[in-house]
Design a protein that fits this description.
Layout: E1 6-8, E2 14-17, E3 21-25, E4 43-51, E5 56-62, E6 66-73, E7 76-80, E8 85-88, E9 93-97, E10 102-107, E11 115-122, E12 132-136, E13 147-152, E14 160-161, E15 166-173, E16 178-183, E17 188-195, E18 197-200, E19 203-206, E20 210-213, E21 217-222, E22 228-235
Parallel strand pairs: 13-14
Antiparallel strand pairs: 1-20, 2-3, 3-4, 4-11, 5-10, 6-9, 6-11, 7-8, 7-10, 9-12, 13-15, 15-22, 16-21, 17-20, 17-22, 18-19, 18-21
Length: 236
Amino acid sequence: MTTHLKIRRAGERGHADHGWLNSWFSFSFAEYYDARHMGFRSLRVINDDRIAPGGGFPTHPHRDMEIFSYLLAGQLAHKDSMGNSRVLNPGEIQMMRAGTGVQHSEFNPSATEPAHLLQIWITPNQRNLKPAYTEWVPAAGHENDINTLVISSDGRDGSASIAQDASIYLLKLRPGNQTSHSLLPGRGLWLHVATGSLVVNGISLSAGDAVSCEAAGEIEITAPNEAAEAILFDLG
């Protein structure tokens, strides 16, 4: 199975440092273009963003995209044209369906602490959907579960719903923890390490690294040395 895994190392990603925003791009985005990395199946964007205190994105438009942010550290203040106003905390996910069009802003509300988040875009399975906003927060007592379904096409098991054939899992492993994922025929997997380090089918990965696979089989994930967080995408 290891031979079917493709590795995307953190240092190979696109990079932009604007002072208030330090971003690493897993796929082509803004001024970063790489024809070999335009996305993976319906997964179009993984931006690893660090926003300086008081910095942020002023109001701007989106449409026909499923957008979610996972906060790793600090806080993120969100406002949108649907009337939503929310401050996101670490371990929480906000999910926005841009659909026919929405405008939103995102700021780091802290005057002293940076914010660290992953912003992820997935292409929907149909255009011109009605815009929508929802959030996922872990159930009480389950904040540190090893393997949690957080987004799915049908909202099962308390997950947020997405307009795409996608199941997205949040992995939180402490040293010595392990988990696995069975990839079925015809599906694709992308695993992005957000923090810490993991071993995936014998391959050592550090923060910002990713692996992808389009061959059916079992994916074994362990954290032998340090705590780690990762997001696993199972895509049709």
